[in-house]
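Section 5.1 Outputs to date
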Amino acid sequence: MVKIVFYKDLKGNALDAYNQGREKMYAMAEKELQKPRSDLICRLLRPEDIGSPYPSFSQSLPTLATPGWTTGGTGLRNYANTVTIADNRFIMINGVSDRSTGVSQIKISRSGSDTRIWNIQQIPDNEDNICYVDDPVIIPQNHQLTIQAYAVASQTEYIRFIGAVVEPVGLLLAGRRGEF
């Protein structure tokens, strides 16, 4: 079993994991899209990349009689309803930012299988409310992604997922200037 460690800065092990994840995404894209690296770009993750209909990660949690995984009204709250990652896009989630305390855990599922469960209770204690992981989640093109939250309070949450996307140049960005 892999022990996932949170880091408050993107350096050391967290930076190494990010760079390795980015390289894995490039390798997947080169192979599956049959394009050279010069025709691909790596950019920051946007809410829309993981199924948000809005350019914002904030979510309003339902009123709960007891804490729990919530979906809609009861159970697990879907931060990203099951969404199929767009064709020609490879996504990595390598961190979380949270400035509230209504959620204690995040569950990330890829193609119907639970991939990660992150306990994020310590994040609001960090000065900048950000934690990076040393074992990022990569979701290839045309695979399903679901992100769920364990709610401990009913409130609007401002959890932001930090990551990167590798895609062909021109799909969203025209050039390689803003590459990450």
